[in-house]
């Protein structure tokens, strides 16, 4: 196995910096999406969680957003009033209420994201299938590293 090239090698891509810039850009994307949907950024982040998790109740959503249950309830009320979510009975536990994205929320978000998704699709198409597999492997591994970091408990306060 060859040693990595020196960091000051001008031919070596700065992957770490490119990833840092990409991650920073996600905040701008959330801001833009919020403006396009007429929502707050926390509302957009909540909707993203509901896309990723199918059986979240208001309290579960509050835990993911790291907000109190009263704030989570207010947020869900706001999203429900705007027609983005609805409260439904849990499919197997009728005592629980879970949140479901409405079709109109999916349609509005899809339309708002379409230009960005199209541009990303064009970028992906620039790479060969083998390169795409390498990129996907890198992004999956980077996601695992970020998730592990986020799951770590905070260090004890300095004395």
From TrEMBL:
Residues 12-144 form the HTH marR-type domain. SMART domains: HTH_MARR (SM00347). It comes from the Bacteria. Transmembrane segments: none annotated. This is MarR family transcriptional regulator. It comes from Pseudonocardia humida.
């Amino acid at each position: 196995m060859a040693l990595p090239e020196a960091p000051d090698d001008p031919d070596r891509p700065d992957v770490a910096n490119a990833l840092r810039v990409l991650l920073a850009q996600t905040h701008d994307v959330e801001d833009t999406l919020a403006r396009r949907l007429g929502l707050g950024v926390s509302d957009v982040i909540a909707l993203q969680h509901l896309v990723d998790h199918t059986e979240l109740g208001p309290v579960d959503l509050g835990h993911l957003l790291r907000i109190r249950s009263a704030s989570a309830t207010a947020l869900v009320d706001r999203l429900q009033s705007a027609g983005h979510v609805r409260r439904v009975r849990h499919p197997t536990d009728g005592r629980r209420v879970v949140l479901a994205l409405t079709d109109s929320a999916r349609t509005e978000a899809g339309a708002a994201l379409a230009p960005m998704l199209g541009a990303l699709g064009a970028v992906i198409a620039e790479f060969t299938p083998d390169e795409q597999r390498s990129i996907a492997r890198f992004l999956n591994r980077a996601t695992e590293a970020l998730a592990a970091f986020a799951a770590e408990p905070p260090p004890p306060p300095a004395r």
